[in-house]
Structure formats: structure tokens, C-alpha cells
Design a protein that fits this description.
The structure holds two protein chains of two kinds. Chain A is mostly helical. Chain A is built from six helices and three strands; from the N terminus they run αβαβααβαα. Chain A is elongated and about 70 Å long. Chain B folds into two domains: 132 residues; 150 residues, Histidine kinase-like ATPase, C-terminal domain (Heat Shock Protein 90, 2-Layer Sandwich). Classes of the chains: A mainly alpha, B alpha+beta.
């Protein structure tokens, strides 16, 4: 508390991450992966004041449109896992909508592609 | 007369009288000497007694001081190590934030915080070091910091907030005192109950109210607590009882040193103890703005070319990690604010438009059917799928 101590390296964050997550566990990878897209739920009228500043800030970041989890984490000072836990909790509370990333395997339907290929071959080939 | 003189009996009598007088005088002298001796002895005894109590007190004080000094420096080391470990754990948390290891790191962090707090409490009782410098923080964050320093932090619920901050000098003491209160509240109530925290503004400042649903305190305990909090403050670690009870002693010392008040004289509506921390206006400030790394999302991210304050600061966090400069959220839906509009003058804009137009014209010149394409891009693109 004397002047000498002021020169010491600064202390770690005042609020520890486990308090911010309220001790909740990490969400499943299927539920929330790095590339899951997240945005604010459309019916969000007035934001409840019970949310912590970190949660409010996450909602602010997501407010502009769909963002990936990795990107949201990049905009905060928090560890990625902590952001995931918060996002999962917010999604559970109905403040956020998550959209799983478009999976390529589903889009590329082999049969259709083959049919198209065959069609093209019979027409031009 | 002569017959009297010649009477040997008379002589004998007078001799006897003389002897008796001599004896009496002697006795008196002896008695006086004895009296003096007794007086001397008495004063000597009381002197001795005084010296004894004095020397016992000095010895006690010396021993107390010695214990304090030893504990103080021992705790200083432990506190330093705990703080260092906290920084290391923080770094690990950001480094391995995406792995499942994070859960364990958070647990280590939690244990480390409790460990640091214990050392801090003993240090406070020994007039020691309170911790590294803290910036002013909001009351809410200080409450959460206190929450993080106890074992069962999940049982603590913060129900209301106030728009006040706590000055940098008082952040650590208030957090520590509140942590001790919360520790008591969670230890003396059943594990399935919730400890509630309410903060509210009062004319004298800000109150932080801690309610538990425990069994409450007996009159004796309450008297002891009130004594430690108000008048009968302890210094040093003696007199804490066995097993030692740090809580109220630590809070009492912190109250005295930093000028806030804690009272436990009312009972909570849930039957347990209601502890009230009253923070006077001297310890309060406005809610500090968040650090530059995390500004509110509404601030424009692009620097204005005119403002000298827009020069990007060399960024690295306190723990030496490169600081990520905040970018505008890259939204798929574009925001409606034209980001670069003010940086272009009219002439520049006209020149750019002109160049664009020239480009499209030269493009059209080489493809004669181009005008048809540009007029109906949707048709043109759909045509591509038609198999003709």
C-alpha cells in the first residue's frame, strides 16, 4: 500500500473467469463449436438487467448479425472456453440464436452430382 | 532520707528501673527498626511486582511483535507467490482457452484465489501487505471478486446493483472484508441454501447487504463479533481462539484502516445473519469505464484521420501478451453507418466514379452485347442454368 508497491507488476484480473462463468461447465462441441454462428434472438425486447457486464457485452457484439464463436471470442479479453460457456448460457436463456455451420458433406450430395455429370456427358459428350 | 539511701532494696529497685528503662528503649528501637525493615520490604515487594508485570508485558509485546514480523514476511512471500501463480494461470487460460483443459485451469485458479485470500487475511492482522495495486472498479466487480475468493462461490447470488465504483485504494480491502463475510455466510449455512447480496445506495454512501439462511449467531458470538468489528479490535494473531477465527478480526482491522463500516447486528429474513457493509462516499467513485481493450461496441472502430488520439497505442497486456486491438464486429449484415464516407473529399469521389465509368465503358466497347447483360443480371445469371 505504500508507494513502492505501486511499481510492481499489475495484479491479475479482479474478477476471475470462473466467477464470470458462475462455475458452469464447457458446452458440448456439437452444441457450440468454433465456427458455430451466433446472433441475438429477434424477440429480444428489453434486455434483462440481471445479466453480467460480460454477457451484456457479448450481446452487444452479436447484435449486428451472425458472428462465429471464434470471432466473438476475439473481440473480448476472455479465454475462448469462457466465451463459449457464456454464449451457451445466453442461448439457453433465449437471448441468442445459434446456427450450426453449413456442413459440406450434406451439401455435396454425391448422387445428384453424378446425375448431373451423366446428364452433361449424354448431352455434350 | 539517709535510711532510704542506705536501703539496699531501694538501690536494687532503682537499678531494676534503670534496667527496665534500658530494655524498653532497646525494644522500642528494635521495633522501629523492624517497622522500617518491613516498610522497606513492602516497597521493595511492590517494586518487584510492578517490574514483574512490566517485564511480562514487554516480553509479551516483544513476542507478539516477533510473531507478527515473522508471519508478515512469511505471508508476504506466500502472497507474492499466489499473485504470481494467478498471472500464470491467467496466461494459461488464454493460451489453452479452447481445450477441455480450461475447466481444470479454472479450478486451479479458484483454489489459488482462496489460498491467496488466506495469506492476505493473516497479513492484514500483522499490519502487512494487502496486495498489488488495483485500479478503481465497480462495486459489482468488487463483489464478484470477493465472491471468487471463497470455496462455495456458486451459492452466492448478486441480486441488485448500484452505479458506483470503489476507489483504487479501497478495492482490495473491501473485497477481502466481503470475502470473509461471504465465507462465514456460506460456512454457517446449509449447502443447499443461497447467500444473497444486495447493494443499494443510502444517504451515507453504498450498502452491501449479505443475507444467509443459516442458523444465525448466539448472543455470545454476536457480542464477540460486534466487539471485534467496533471497539475491541485485535492486532496480531493471538486471541483468535482455537481453532482460530479470522473473519471478524480481519474485517475489524480493515474497517479501522480504510474507513468503512461492517455490522452484523440484525438478522436476515431467512433466519441467518445479515451483514451490512457501509461504504462511505470517500471510498466511492463513478463506475470506471472499461479498459481500452474492451470498449462498448457502439464506438466506431475506424480511427478518424484528423484525431491525434487515434494513433494506435503499442499494445500488450499486463502479463506481456500482445493485445488484440478491437475491431468492428464483422457482421454478415452490413451496418448502416458508412464507414469510410468522411475520409473522401468530393473531388476524390468524383474521380473514382469517373474511373469506374471509364472502365465499364471500355469493357462494353470490346463486347457488343454487353449492354443487354448489365441491364438484366438476374436473367443473365439464371440463363446459365438452362440447358439449351
Amino acid at each position: 500500500m505504500t508507494g513502492r508497491e505501486d511499481w510492481e507488476p499489475e495484479a491479475a484480473e479482479l474478477v476471475r473467469p470462473y466467477v464470470i462463468t458462475k462455475g458452469r461447465g464447457l458446452p458440448d462441441e456439437e452444441q457450440l463449436s468454433l465456427i458455430t454462428l451466433v446472433t441475438v434472438a429477434p424477440e429480444e425486447g428489453q434486455r434483462p438487467t440481471r445479466l453480467s457486464p460480460e454477457e451484456q457485452r457479448l450481446l452487444d457484439i452479436c447484435a449486428a448479425g451472425y458472428l462465429s464463436v471464434a470471432e466473438i471470442a476475439g473481440h473480448t479479453r476472455l479465454p475462448l472456453g469462457v466465451v463459449k460457456i457464456l454464449l451457451a448460457a445466453l442461448a439457453e436463456g433465449g437471448y441468442l440464436v445459434t446456427r450450426s455451420p453449413v456442413r459440406r458433406a450434406v451439401l455435396a450430395d454425391r448422387e445428384i452430382l453424378e446425375e448431373v455429370l451423366n446428364g452433361l456427358r449424354s448431352k455434350f459428350g | 532520707m539517709t535510711e532510704y539511701i542506705q536501703n539496699p532494696v531501694l538501690w536494687a529497685l532503682s537499678l531494676l528501673v534503670l534496667a527496665a528503662i534500658a530494655v524498653i528503649v532497646r525494644q522500642r528501637k528494635a521495633a522501629q527498626a523492624l517497622k522500617r525493615q518491613i516498610g522497606g520490604l513492602r516497597s521493595h515487594y511492590s517494586d518487584l511486582e510492578n517490574h514483574y508485570t512490566q517485564s511480562v508485558e514487554t516480553a509479551q509485546e516483544q513476542a507478539e511483535e516477533a510473531t507478527k514480523t515473522v508471519l508478515k514476511s512469511a505471508m508476504r512471500t506466500l502472497q507474492g507467490l499466489a499473485a504470481e501463480q494467478q498471472l500464470v494461470v491467467s496466461r494459461l487460460q488464454s493460451k489453452y482457452g479452447e481445450s477441455a483443459m480450461l475447466q481444470d485451469l479454472l479450478e486451479i485458479d479458484h483454489t489459488n484465489s482462496q489460498f491467496g485470500r488466506r495469506a492476505q487475511s493473516i497479513a492484514v492482522l500483522c499490519d502487512g501487505w494487502l496486495g498489488r495495486h488495483r485500479d478503481a472498479a465497480s462495486v459489482y466487480d468488487v463483489v464478484r471478486s470477493a465472491q471468487g475468493r471463497i470455496r462455495h462461490f456458486g451459492r452466492v447470488e448478486i441480486l441488485s446493483r448500484v452505479d458506483f465504483g470503489i476507489t483504487s485504494r479501497a478495492v482490495e480491502p473491501v473485497a477481502l472484508a466481503l470475502a470473509e463475510l461471504l465465507d462465514n455466510a456460506t460456512s454457517y449455512s446449509s449447502p443447499d441454501t443461497v447467500v444473497e447480496i444486495n447493494t443499494r445506495t443510502v444517504p451515507k454512501g453504498v450498502c452491501i447487504v449479505v443475507d444467509d439462511a443459516g442458523v444465525g449467531m448466539s448472543d455470545e458470538e454476536r457480542a464477540r463479533a460486534e466487539g471485534l468489528l467496533a471497539s475491541n479490535r485485535v492486532t496480531g494473531v493471538s486471541g483468535l481462539g482455537n481453532p482460530p477465527q479470522f473473519g471478524f478480526a480481519v474485517i475489524g482491522v480493515l474497517c479501522e484502516r480504510f474507513g468503512f463500516e461492517v455490522s452484523v447486528d440484525s438478522s436476515s429474513p431467512y433466519g441467518g445473519v445479515r451483514a451490512v457493509v457501509l461504504l462511505p462516499h470517500e471510498l466511492l467513485t463513478s463506475v470506471p469505464v472499461q479498459k481500452p481493450t474492451a470498449p462498448p461496441a457502439t464506438t466506431p472502430a475506424l480511427p478518424h484521420p484528423a484525431g491525434p488520439e487515434a494513433v494506435p497505442v503499442p499494445a500488450s497486456t499486463s502479463d506481456g501478451l500482445p493485445k488484440r486491438r478491437r475491431k468492428r464486429p464483422m457482421a454478415i449484415v452490413p451496418s448502416d453507418t458508412p464507414a469510410q464516407a468522411p475520409s473522401r473529399s468530393d473531388a476524390e469521389a468524383a474521380a473514382i466514379m469517373g474511373a469506374f465509368q471509364r472502365g465499364t465503358q471500355s469493357g462494353r466497347a470490346s463486347f457488343p452485347e454487353a449492354p443487354d447483360r448489365t441491364s438484366s443480371t438476374s436473367r443473365a445469371s439464371s440463363e446459365g442454368h438452362e440447358v439449351s
